[in-house]
Amino acid sequence: MSTRSATQTQVSRPSDFLTGIGLLGRGFGMYARNPGLLLLGILPALIAFVVLVGAFVVLVYFIGPEARALTWFAGSWSAQERDLIRALAEVAILVGFIFLAVLSYTALALAIGDPFYERISQRVEARYGATAAGVNLPWWKELVRSVGEAIRLAVFSAAVAVLVFLLGLIPVIGQVGAAVLGGLVGGWALAVELTGIPFARRGVRLRERRRMLRRYRWLSLGFGVAVFGCFLIPFGAILVMPAAVAGATLLTRRVYGQPV
Questions:
Q1: Is residue 260 over pLDDT 50?
Q2: Looking at residue 111, what is its pLDDT?
Q3: Per-residue b/e over 218-229, b at no fewer than 16 CB within 10 Å?
Q4: What digits encode the pLDDT tens for the residues 105-157?
């Protein structure tokens, strides 16, 4: 099926948000029935998790000086006002870091475990039928592709993280707005990241992948937000990652109108 026909077969509907969540659930079901999928995906996910936990510990250790550096303009304020803006800055730093960490975790895990996650995705494809057009690249080319796309997505994520930080400086409403924005944008970015492997198998790169997923924005958001929420659960990302790769493959097949 061509890219054009695949993206014009269905109009995105808000109800597809729940269907997207269900794709992650089906990903869990698939690797629950195939424990080997879990074993393939858990090691790179664990390595990425340890790296980011280390970064979080460093962040928390230096969060006081970081908050003071970012709120330099409050140096002449009263002690009460200065303490308030610095406390808000600390919260905003943590919210921004969590947002970046979730997206960086996915990119890092995919880069470390690209051959493993490729096998998981291939098993899902084999269960429901071959792809419309297979493009098999050497593992090192796939690694270069995934790292390059991860860098581009990281730049986008960093820009959004700055906005999340600034929102977090607004008392109460800002924290809620930052959480909602982070969840929606983070969910979208995760959907784009996780579908990289099955889309690359079809010869589709980042720009075209984004365009195709936008045609199914509610489906993609439902899946991505569900993954984002699971990644916020302590240690949840390690167990969710293989299911997310399987679910992303199902999402890709839905976009292409292939049986799932």
A1: yes
A2: 82
A3: bbbbbbbbbbbb
A4: 888 888 888 888 888 888 888 888 766 555 555 666 666 666 666 677 677 76
8 A C-beta contact, residue 106 and residue 193: yes
**pLDDT, tens only, 167-226:** 777 776 777 777 788 888 889 989 998 998 899 888 888 889 999 999 999 999 999 999
